[in-house]
Structure prediction request, 250 residues.
Amino acid sequence: MKLIMEENACDFNRRSAAEIARFIQNKPDARICFATGETTKGIYAELAELYKQGEVDFSRVTAFVLDEYQGASRMNPASCLARLEAQLFGPVHLPEEHIHSFDSAAADLHHVCMEYENIIRSEGGIDLQILGIGTNGHIGFNEPGASFDSISRVVEVGQETIVARSEMFGSKELVPRTGVTMGIKTIMNSANIYLFAVGASKAQMLEKALFGPIVPDIPASVLQLHPSLTVIADKEAAAKLPGPILVQPE
Ligand code: F6R
Prediction:
C-alpha cells in the first residue's frame, strides 16, 4: 500500500488530481472507473484545471461510472452520471462514446448489471479505480456485509448514502432506495486502485479499513489485499492512522 498524506483539503485535491493526471500521462488510453461524492468533487475540479492548462489529455481515456441510483438517468442532475458529466467529463471533453454507465432506468436491472460486467471485460478491464469511502466502510454501493465475491448487481442504497444525498435529490424521501453498483470483486479486479479520504469524519473508518481485520462488515478492508493500492488522505482523515505516516514527495 502506498500512503500519501497532505496537510489540508486544498493540497489533498491538488495532489489527488496530480496523481490521476500522472496516471493518464503514463497511460493515455487508460480505462478509469470514477466514484462520485463530496471527496471526489474537489479532485475533479482540480483535474479540470489541469486539463485547461494542457497538463492532461482525456481524448483517449475510457470512463466507467462506479454506481448509479435506480431510475436516475443522465437527465437527473442528481444521478452519478450527470454529476460526473458536470464535474469532469464535460469540462475535460471526454468523448461521449468513451463513457460507460449503468442504464439504471431500464426495466431489467439484473440484465443491465450483467451487461456492465461484459462491457468491462470486453474493454479489457479497468486500469484505475477511483474510490471514496463511507463512514461505515462502504465502497461504491457495497454496504457492510457485501460479499467479497460480488460483481455488478442491484443493491439497497445504504442509510448513510440516503442521508448524505438527500439535499441533492431534494429530500430524504426522494433518494432512490435501490441502486446498481460494481461489486467488490469487480473493484478488486482493477489493476490499480486510488482510495481518497478527506475530513475528520473519515478518520476512524480509514484506520479500521486499512489496518483492521479484513472482514465483509467493513467492505473497504478488502482493499488491503489489493497489490496496487494508493491511499491519499488529508491530515484530518489520516489522523488515526499509525504513524509515522509516509508523505510521499510529488
Ligand atoms: C459514490 C460512491 C460512494 C462514495 C462514498 C464517499 O459513487 O461510490 O461509495 O465514494 O460514499 O462519499 P463522499 O465522498 O461524499 O464522502
